[in-house]
Every structure is written in C-alpha cells, then in structure tokens.
Write a structure and sequence with these properties.
The protein has 388 residues and is of the alpha/beta class. The protein folds into two domains: 225 residues, Vaccinia Virus protein VP39 (Rossmann fold), CATH 3.40.50; 48 residues, no CATH class. 33% of the residues lie in helices and 14% in strands. Helix 2 links the parallel strand 2 and strand 3.
C-alpha cells in the first residue's frame, strides 16, 4: 500500500504508517535538521526508514505529477504552530498554516484515504470557524479557492456546495481528539486526528477504541501492587503513598476499570532499563547524554516518574524546560535525555536524532508518537484492505 508523507518532521507518523504496512512513495520535509536525522538513520540502515525517498524542500513547490502509481493514503502533520497553545495563535493568518497544502495533496493525488494530525489548539473556540473551513475543504478538495477569494468567501461557497451536494462529498471526514496515553504511549499527549475516506469506497470506519486507562494504572499500583513489584520498588516505600487513594482504589476493586483494561504506561515503564545518563554506562547509549541546568519553579515542575509524562513540547521560543524534565524519586528535577524523550514518543531504539539537545528535543516535541500513529494507521489500513 503506497502512501505519501507530508511535513514529515522527525518521522513519528511516517514510521507508524510503515509499521502499519504502508510504503512511502515520497517523504517530504523542509527542515534541514530533521532531514539530516532521516539521512543519518538511512546511512546506518535503521529499518524504520531505510529506502524511503526523502525530499528536502518546501511542500508548496512539490509536483505530485511525478508520482506515477496510485497512492492509497496521504498523511502528515501540517505545521501546528499557528494553532498551538504554546505558539502565537495566529491560525489562518499565519504563513506557517499548511492545511491548504494538505488539501492540495488530496486534490491532486486522489488517495483512497488521508490521515492528518494536529495540536489540540486547533479545536479552540477562537479557531472554530477556520476548523469548519478545513473540514469542508477536505471533504470537497476539488472546490478550489479562487485567487481573489478570501477564506470566508471560500467557506461560504463550500457551504453552498456541501448543502447542495452533501451526499456526493468527495471524502467523508471525521475527527477526534486522542490522548496518546490511552493507547499505550507513556505520555499524556492530546492530538487531533482528521481521517477521511474517498466516498466512492463506501467505507465504514471509526477511530480505534482506547486500550489503556488511568484507573487500571491505579489498580496496578495501589490495588494489587504488581506495578511496584515489576520495578522492584520495596513494599514499604509504595505503601506509604497508598492511603490517600484508598477510597478510589476500593471503588475500582469493586467495579473494575472501564473498557480499556490495560494500565497507562509511565515514565518508569519507558526508561527503567536505561542507565543513569550521569554514569559511565550512559555514554554507551545513543543520544543518552546528560544535560545540566534543570530547575523547578511554579508551572515548570517536570514529569513524575510513576505517571505518564507531560506532553513533550517543541516551544515557540526554544524548548520549554518544564515539559522536558523528569522528577526523580527524591524530588530533584533533571532534563530528559534525547533517548529518554524518544522512548516517551515510542521511537525505536535504533533511531537516532541529529543536532544539539535543544534541536533534537524540538524534533521530538513536534513528532507524533510512533505507537499512536501505528494504531490509527493500522485501523485505516485494515479498512482499505477490506474494501479492495
């Protein structure tokens, strides 16, 4: 199954797509550091990206006519800074808004489906009108915006077209806000996914149901204690913390967790087998270099070891420290190493990141967790196989 990856970044969504069985006909990214990360992994034959046709350049200048065979899926994460809570919130007024290019790719390639991902901020009330416009464009990509037409006027024309021809929309589009922790990613990371299927396929599809939940983690930790046993934490240490959650745990013991029965994965789950980056053994692991200078202050407190991490962020003016720190058992913070952050984003261990700590963390902060990408892409792939 051939696919095209736009705005590939460090490759989280692209690797997840590959794990789901898609073969990339083109992987397009403009950032030179992210492209060098791709090339470095291709040089040392990282299975995740070996052989991918990487195109370094602005997607706005890419000619899709050069892709001769059918493309089943177009995927990508249009740059999120215009809508990010950590950015300037300029939305459609921001020249980094690449949703028009995502729509162009769908229009010109006519894939059977598409998968686009973006930040939670896309659903902010202040962007509601523009988000509706995005959905209309993706549903009717052949209704092209005219040169002299404002986006408001184009939206109105799309609304008229949609109400007149709604049953004949080119793509049936759905969206959902997903929390990566609910799918086994050791990070509380909420992202909007937009998925569309070409209407002539008559595909019936829904987002995959969550498989992991907080209640199951609570039971594992405070009800059964197997979480602590797995990590060889002495019983006396964790039992001191249990009383404050006793009532909730007793309720869960009686009722059980919701449908999602697996416990959230934690930071400890993700990094427990990595050596201390300040120890001599730390240097034997790629990208596992200690970065000094971490300090905590209000709103900048880091991620507890025994919970899913906070959302890793790239930041608008450098990498935010608080979202990229670990809180040790003794309460002292330190920065995550690049390898630890890659674990939190579920990248393969043989995948390395090029650049200084801040640049590598920026790549990771912008990435889609590989595991979440694979879950969504795998579900789309199964539907496409069933309709072929």
């Amino acid at each position: 199954m051939r696919s095209v990856e736009l705005f590939a970044g460090a490759g989280g969504l692209a690797i997840g797509m590959a794990q789901a069985g898609f073969r990339h006909a083109a992987v397009i990214e403009w950032n030179p550091d992210a492209c060098e990360t791709f090339r470095e992994n291709q040089r040392h034959h990282a299975h995740a990206v070996e052989g991918w046709p990487l195109i370094e350049g602005d997607v706005r200048g890419f000619d899709y006519a050069g892709i001769s065979k059918e493309v089943l899926v177009v995927s990508g994460g249009p740059p999120c800074q215009p809508f990010s809570l950590g950015g300037k919130h300029r939305g459609f007024r921001d020249d980094r808004d690449m949703f028009p290019e995502a729509v162009r790719a769908v229009r010109e390639l006519r894939p059977r489906a598409f998968i686009f991902e973006n930040v939670k901020g896309l659903l902010r009330e202040s962007f509601a009108g523009y988000f509706e416009y995005i959905l209309l464009q993706l549903g009717h990509p052949s209704v092209v915006r005219r040169k002299s037409e404002s986006w408001h006027d184009h939206r109105s024309r799309l609304e008229r077209h949609h109400t007149a021809h709604g049953k004949r929309a080119e793509y049936n589009v759905v969206f959902r806000l997903l929390n990566a922790a609910n799918y086994g990613v050791p990070q509380k990371r909420e992202r909007v996914f937009l998925v569309g299927f070409r209407s002539d396929l008559n595909a019936a599809w829904n987002f995959p149901e969550a498989t992991h939940c907080e209640d199951a983690l609570l039971l594992s930790k405070w009800g059964r204690g197997d979480y602590w046993e797995r990590h060889a934490v002495p019983r006396r240490q964790w039992q001191e913390l249990a009383p404050r959650l006793r009532a909730r745990v007793e309720r869960l013991r009686a009722t059980g967790p919701d449908k999602a029965s697996l416990p959230w994965a934690t930071v400890r789950d993700a990094i427990a087998d990595l050596p201390d980056p300040q120890s001599p053994a730390g240097s034997s692991v790629a990208n596992h270099v200690f970065n000094p200078g971490a300090r905590a202050y209000p709103g900048h407190t880091g991620s507890p070891l025994d919970e899913p991490a906070k959302t890793l962020k790239a930041g608008d003016h450098g990498v935010p420290g608080g979202e990229n720190m670990l809180v040790r058992v003794d309460g002292r913070p330190r920065y995550f190493t690049v390898r630890e952050a890659a674990r939190l984003q579920t990248f393969p261990d043989d995948y390395v990141f090029i650049g200084a700590w801040s640049e590598a963390m920026r790549q990771l902060g912008n990435a889609v967790p590989v595991r979440l990408a694979a879950v969504v892409a795998g579900s789309v792939a199964a539907t496409l196989r069933a309709r072929s």
